[in-house]
Amino acid sequence: MWQSARPPATTGDRDSLERLFKLVALSAAVGNLDMHAKNISLLHQPDGSMTLSPAYDVVPQAHQPNDGEVALAIGGEYRHAALTMSHLVAEARAWGLAAAAELAEETVSLVLQLASAEVPDERAHPGLAQDIAGFAANLLAGQAIGTGGHQP
């Protein structure tokens, strides 16, 4: 029977866990309803460790006709319009991230900053940048994403 020279890695690194949470927060803030296990990958290193791959397939979809639910629950909530900062923080804390609130606020603040500053391509969905800015602003204000006319 073949045996590895080193014990297999059983967990990823803390940086990967934080980056995964930031991807969850980003996905909520931009309306990426399709973040599921097949859109998250690990890179296995030669030393047996693993790390989160760079993000991919992050696409805002809340503005399109759909059921309005995220593929994976965030803090126990599937309805995108009902997500709050509390859901994000609860999710991060469930993963053992002590700086949950700070990570969530930092990520959502960056989304708001970029959505407010970027000029979308003329082919983009009309109002997409405003929707994303509204989602992020609602989260930062402690409200549900869909509050205040920003519900898709």
Describe this structure in words.
With 152 residues, the chain is α+β, with helices and mostly antiparallel strands. It has one domain (14-140). It has helices at residues 14-30, 85-94, 100-117, 128-140; strands at residues 42-44, 50-52, 69-74, 77-79. Strand 3 and strand 4 (77-79) form a beta hairpin. Mean pLDDT is 87; it is low at 1-10.
H/E topology pattern: HEEEEHHH
Radius of gyration: 17 Å
Q: Helix fraction?
A: 25-40%
Q: Work out the count of structural domains.
A: 1
Poorly predicted ranges (pLDDT <50, ≥5 residues)? 1-10
Pfam families: HipA_C
Domain HipA-like C-terminal: 12-109
Organism: Trebonia kvetii
GO molecular function: protein serine/threonine kinase activity
Q: What is the element layout, followed by pairings?
A:
Elements: H1 14-30, E1 42-44, E2 50-52, E3 69-74, E4 77-79, H2 85-94, H3 100-117, H4 128-140
Antiparallel strand pairs: 1-2, 3-4
Helix pairs in contact: 1-3, 2-3, 3-4
